[in-house]
Each structure stands twice: as C-alpha cells, then as structure tokens.
Amino acid sequence: MKNIIHSFLIVIITSIFFSCEINAQWIQANGPYGFIHCFAVIPNSSGGTNLFTGGETGLFLTTDNGATWTTCDTTGMTNNNVSALAVSGTNLFAGTDWGVFLSTNSGTNWTPIYAGFPALVAPQISALAVSGSSLFAGNGSGVFQSFQNGANWTTDTVGMLYKYVYALADSGTNLFAGSNGGVYSSVNKGGSWTCINSFTMDTMTFNAYTLGVCGTDLVAGGFVAESNFNGGVFITANDGANWTESNFNSPIDAIAFSGTNIFVGTSSGYNDGGVFLSDNNGVSWKAVNAAFFNSDSLDISALAVSGSYLFAGTAYGIWRISLSEIITGINNQQSNLPNRFSLSQNYPNPFNPTTIINYSIPKTSLVTIKVYDVLGREVATLVNEEKYAGNYSVQFSGSKLSSGIYFYRIQAGSFVQTKKLLLLK
C-alpha cells in the first residue's frame, strides 16, 4: 500500500545530510522471495531468537539468523498475504487482507480471530500491536481493540480525524498510531486519541508510515504531502509534547533499533533508497547499502534486528548484514560510549503492567537479563544474546503476573547485578 501511494506522489528532493556510506556486506537470504511486509522476533527455548517474516507469499520462519527458512503452514488463513505481525508471550498474531489470525504454536496452526469486527468494516489489517492484555489492530477504518485475543473487538477512534492507520506502537504508558493524518496518542489504551504531530504545519498532511519506541523515545517516519518537504524522521522524548526533526528529508517506510542506533529504510525513488544508520539520535545519517543485489532491492519495506544481524525486507526478498560490520566501527569513534557496566533502576517503579530497564555495556559481551519472583523462580528472560558496546533499553511486561516484589538480574561477562522492582495492579 505504501509503495503504491509513493508511485502516485510527485515530489521534489531537496537535501539530506549523509556523512558517508558504510562499505558493508549484505547477504541475500536463501528465501523467502517476493514482497516482504513485516518481521517479528520471538525468543526461543535455546536462548536465541526465532525470526518470522510476512509478505505477499505467506509466512516464514528462521531459527538460525536467516541461514535457512521454513515456510509456515498457513492453512486456516483465509488469505496468506501477511501485512502485519505481533507477539504476546507464546501467541503470534498475523494481520492479512482478510483479518487477524492467531497461532499458539509458532505458526504451525492458525485460527481466525476477526469475527467480532464491525460488519461494515473490511478487516484488511495494516498494523498490529500488543499492549498489556490487549491486542490492537489498525486498518483503513481506524484502530480496533480486543481484550480476549480476538474473541471480540471494539472500535477505538474517538478523537481520530484521519483514520487510515499504517502503524501502531506501545511505550508502556501510551499507545501510538501512525495515520494518514499524522501521529495520534492514547493515554487510556485506545479509549480516545489526540493528534501529537506538532512538527508539521496545519496545511500539510503527514503520513506516518512507521513508528518505533526506543527507551523513552518515540521515533516516527513517513511522508509529508502538499509540500516540497518529502518526509523524514521525527523524534520525541516526552510522548509528543516536543519533537526533534531529524536531518533526513526522505520518506521512511521502516524503522529498527540496536541499542541507541537508529536504522531507517527508504525507497529507491528517494535519494537512491536503501538503509541508513544514525548513531547520534538523528543528527546525521550514513548509508548502509553496499553490495545490494540490484537497485530494486533498495526499496526497503521492513527492518528488524534479530540476534547479531540486521534484516531488511524488500520487494524481492530478504537481505541481512552483521551488526558488527556497521556499528562497531562507528561506535569506536564515539566519545559517549559507556566506560563501565551498569544496570539502572527500572522506571516507572512501581509499575503496571510494563516498565523499562536500561543497562550499559562498555565492550562486546554475552548479556542475559532475567526476572525472578521472591522465591527465586525465573519468570521471564528479557535478554539473552551478544551485545555490542552501547546503552540499551528493554521493556518488561508483568501483565501475566500477580502483584508483588520481583528481582531482575543482569550478567554480562563477569559483571553481575540484581535490582528489585514492584508490580502493583
């Protein structure tokens, strides 16, 4: 849908600041092929990650960082053009042209869960998000909410003037929606919405194609119509009260994060397209496009960080690159790298149901962060992978836990630290 919209828009490219291009090696995945719409990352039982991707030819899974891919059985899906994915514990949700589907066994079987959609609303899903115990779905008619994994749905569009929803994101306290009229925020889990895209003029329409939450920052990317300004990246650290305009004047279709590093994906019609990296909160950008197979592959439709790789979904399949090739060389030049290991107190604390935990790694290390109850029983694994030097944030949800005191523990090399958190419901 976004690429179709782009093809009908006539734009004037003005300026964009890139300090250099990173000469890094992308490798094309051995399948899947065709147009890729989305990714979802789920921790697996072996301590690694399962990466799912959805596109025009169905749903696929890799358990070995993209070396091999398995086609998921989509029997039970009315339509297998998968446009959105979301994860809640062991539940995997897929949005298609014909509604939302649920798998409780890693994509092996699927159950339709869109029967409760209003009769007059076509259930063509463009975005999915999980916030606490609720599932949210976005489409051309707004945002819909289900408290029971899709058993029933309610309409959540109060205050939303523009209702074509491209993206959804949850910060733990606010739910955000990217639409054809900008960015909307809900402080009551979709009960009502407020437009917060104060970074554009009233006469412009900001199409917020993609949203991402990194720590306390909300990052929005998209396209501005009716203007010589084409679009770009906008960042807010206070839920939209104030925005910082990033130095990036091109439409954005995808956003991903690795620590404090921001990756964005654009289309080949704009500044040659491709993947770009900012390691200074959007002040400057570096192209990360060397060795893509052809110019068509520079139409980036989805991005994801899984394990030690960055994955890019394109109109012609999936590409991957080692994060160490594109981050380590840059970060070594940064003066703001942490000089010691640290684990911060979670915030908010007490919390309900989600909280943020920040930590710092001064050198590449295998990092694990786990949560335990007062009896010492493990209740969640938040991180279990190798991390490069940097500052990181991870979100913990206690939606399935009872109120009480819990402990979170980090181990990175020989560094071990434990802190207490309080869940109040």
Round the Cα radius of gyration to an integer and report it.
Answer: 20 Å
> What is the total tally of β strands?
36
Distance between the termini: 40 Å
Would you identify the CATH architecture of the largest domain?
A: 7 Propeller
Q: Give the helix level as a range of percent.
A: under 10%
Q: For the report, how would you describe the main beta sheet?
A: 5 strands, mixed
Average pLDDT figure: 81
Provide the CATH top-level class of the largest domain. Mainly Beta
Count of alpha and pi helical runs: 2
Give the arrangement of secondary structure elements.
Layout (H helix, E strand, L loop, with lengths): L1 H6 L10 E4 L5 E2 L7 E8 L5 E7 L2 E5 L7 E2 L10 E7 L2 E6 L2 E5 L7 E2 L12 E7 L2 E6 L2 E5 L7 E3 L8 E6 L4 E5 L2 E5 L7 E2 L9 E10 L2 E9 L5 E6 L7 E2 L8 E5 L2 E6 L7 E5 L6 E3 L12 E7 L2 E6 L2 E6 H9 L10 E2 L10 E8 L3 E8 L5 E10 L2 E8 L6 E9 L2 E9 L2
Parallel strand pairs: 1-26
Antiparallel strand pairs: 2-29, 3-4, 4-5, 5-6, 7-8, 8-9, 9-10, 11-12, 12-13, 13-14, 15-16, 16-17, 17-18, 19-20, 20-21, 21-22, 23-24, 24-25, 25-26, 27-28, 28-29, 30-31, 31-34, 32-33, 32-35, 35-36
